[in-house]
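Query structure, 82 tokens:
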């Protein structure tokens, strides 16, 4: 039970993204993919838990298509990425 309380307290941290920020991130990534991405990007960002590696590519490894989640459009949003 205490573990659930700790997780709830962690979820309430002020650094977490709001729903609006997550939607904005999805829209901006969609625009980036459509307008800026050539073939791929490999990024690394630091987090409190260590480095996070982000790969963006126009292709995925064969047979891995089902591992990806559609980020945009969100089910309740129009398809316009702007």
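Result returned for the query:
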């Amino acid at each position: 039970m205490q573990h659930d309380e700790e997780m709830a307290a962690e979820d309430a941290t002020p650094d977490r993204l709001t729903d609006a920020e997550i939607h904005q991130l999805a829209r901006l990534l969609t625009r980036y993919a459509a307008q800026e991405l050539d073939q791929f990007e490999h990024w690394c960002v630091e987090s409190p838990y260590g480095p996070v590696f982000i790969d963006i590519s126009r292709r995925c490894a064969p047979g891995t298509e089902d591992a990806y989640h559609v980020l945009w459009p969100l089910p309740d949003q129009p398809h316009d990425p702007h």
